[in-house]
Amino acid sequence: MARRPLAVTLYGRPGCGLCDEAEVFLARIGRKIPLAVSLVNIETDDELLRRYVVEIPVVMVGGREIARAPIYEKALEDALQDAASR
């Protein structure tokens, strides 16, 4: 039986190179771990912009932060694997 995709939220903004890199990491990791990634542009919400403007990208699973800039692919994969096994 196939695993249900893990719901992942990536907070970022247009023109953010680290955010683009995190998106690439998630795409690669998604080949190993089923992921359903939602991208959230923090510029569309004043509260998100205040909270994350200097900390993006931020990756959340189930309302819990699992990574923030700088994001390293192996550490992100390990955190997602841990979240998927719960």
Structural topology:
Blueprint: E1 6-12, H1 17-29, E2 35-41, H2 46-52, E3 58-61, E4 64-68, H3 73-84
Parallel strand pairs: 1-2
Antiparallel strand pairs: 1-3, 3-4
Structure notes:
- Strand 1, helix 1 and strand 2 form a beta-alpha-beta unit.
- The chain has one domain: 3-Layer(aba) Sandwich (Glutaredoxin).
- The chain has 3 helices and 4 strands.
- It is α+β, with helices and mostly antiparallel strands.
- The helicity comes to 25-40%
Q: What Rg, in angstroms, do the CA atoms define? A: 12 Å
Q: How many DSSP H or I helices?
A: 3
Between the first and last Cα atoms, what is the distance in angstroms?
17 Å
The CATH class is Alpha Beta
Q: How are helices and strands ordered from N to C?
A: EHEHEEH
